[in-house]
Amino acid sequence: MSFFEIVESSWVYMVEGIWVTLFLTLISVIIGFFLGVLLAVSKTYGNKLFYYISYVFIEIIRGTPLLVQLFILYYSLPVIGIRLSPILASIMAFSLNSAAYQAEYLRGAIQSISSGQMQASLSIGMKKWQAIRLIILPQALRRFIPSWTNEFIYLLKYSSLSYIVGAPEIMAQAKFVASRNFEFFQVYLFAAIIYFVLVTIFGEIFRFIEKKMKIPGTLTYARNQI
Amino acid sequence: MKKEKDSILKVEDLHKSYNETEILKGITLEVKKGETKVIIGPSGTGKSTLLMCINRLVEPDSGRIYLEGEEILSSKNIHKIRQKIGFVFQHFNLFDHLTVLDNVKIGLTKVKKIEKSQATEIALKELERVGLKDKSELYPAQLSGGQKQRVAIARTLAMNPKLILFDEPTSALDPELIGEVLNVMIDLAKSGMTMVCVTHEMGFARAVADEIIFMENGVIVEKGPPESMFKNPQKDRTKEFLNKLSQLYGKEENT
């Protein structure tokens, strides 16, 4: 079979896979974002209790493989009576995992904001949480966009792990198609192209957002973006 | 005359240490309504720390601070007290992601909870006072250093403080830009604002200071009105330091 015939015959299955992949990735990255903001703020500004909660959470997540986390949620939780669907288990694993990484990226961005910004906020009478919400985070989140893009792309590709627990995303669909027509190389090549196109599209979207959010007058000293 | 005026700020026996190093070794001073005090002294003597202790950006170890007779070191609502104490930083610390107008407005809308149209009005009035009304839609990164510092002063003024602390407001500026900031500060002092300024701009001190305070190694070495401090300092160390300053900045600066 030619590559085009492969594409034509597997297209319907792959589109289904694309939707599942996008669904998994988007939901996870968004949950991970909000959790990540909480973790980063707790770790940077929180009291000892909040600091240690986020510290321990982040260390455990970063210290173990994503696949192991997924297996624990999918295969081990049923032992204590909690049975999750493949999609739900994947979303939970990806969200928690992404939260830890996003928290650390964001913490770096928060710490890159000059301490004078907090001092100035407090000096006009803001409470600490107001300063974080109104002054620190709006600036830190802008600096966070490049690493957030990275995290999104990472998650988009690593969502392929969820085929192992049976979520019908791109890789699972590819495996299904290939096991019927035995054209493993061409089907997986097609899957690779799909990932590449998705990553490129989202990369461009976030690059556009980054440009839109740039504070007027600030220089990046990087090559001017076209 | 001055004695009859109300006391705005009173600092009593203020101590502060970082780790083992004692930065402030018992500072006592009083500022009355409408007075301008200029604090001078070599770097690392605790001048900035003193200012930061006054609005509790740095917590002092011991001592007392009174703002209009109210003891503020034990206050639980320090954010309420900070609204009454303006602070102008050496490095401006404008909010980089906000326009000039929003920099001045944000304290009014978010801290004082004044409605937006009224806040805009107040903010524009303060920007006019520092001569930057026409820059209100620009962002801090689009301004010169002198303009940034004037916006920072407007941001402080908008909160209608009882007292403004200036922490070396012109030290980060090019010589050409210092004048525009000092002029704003001189106008402020003349309009009756109570000010405590850490600065080595002796022209400014001559023009408006009621008292010059010379600090070194965490203590006040000597203080007095500008005429007597310049012409006839009591301590040798004060004389030496003032000589160095006038060598640097020229003796008879008139602003």
Describe this structure in words.
The complex is a heterodimer of chains A (226) and B (255). The model of chain A has no long low-confidence stretch (mean pLDDT 93). By secondary structure, chain A is an all-alpha fold. Chain A has helices at 3-45, 48-63, 66-76, 86-111, 115-123, 128-158, 170-181, 184-213. Chain B has helices spanning 47-54, 78-82, 100-111, 116-129, 145-158, 175-190, 202-208, 226-231, 236-249; strands at 7-18, 21-32, 36-40, 62-67, 70-71, 85-88, 163-167, 195-198, 211-216, 219-224. The chains are: A mainly alpha (226), B alpha/beta (255). Chains A and B meet through α5 and α6 of A and α2, β6, α3 and α5 of B.
Q: The biggest beta sheet of chain A, please?
A: none
Work out the radius of gyration of chain A.
21 Å
Chain pair forming the biggest interface: A-B, 23 and 32 residues
Proper CATH architecture of the domain at 22-169 in chain A: Orthogonal Bundle
Determine the structural class of chain B based on helices, strands and strand pairing.
alpha/beta
Q: Quick one: how many beta strands of chain A?
A: 0
The arrangement of helices and strands of chain A along the chain is HHHHHHHH
The count of helical stretches of chain B stands at: 9
Domain ABC transmembrane type-1 (chain A): 18-206
Keywords (chain A): Amino-acid transport, Cell membrane, Membrane, Transmembrane, Transmembrane helix, Transport
Subcellular location (chain A): Cell membrane
GO molecular function (chain A): transmembrane transporter activity
Descriptive tags:
heterodimer, A: 226 residues, mainly alpha, MetI-like fold, 0% strand, B: 255 residues, alpha/beta, six-stranded mixed beta sheet, four-stranded antiparallel beta sheet, 9 helices, 10 strands, 38% helix, 24% strand, globular, Amino acid ABC transporter permease (chain A), transmembrane transporter activity (chain A), transmembrane (chain A)
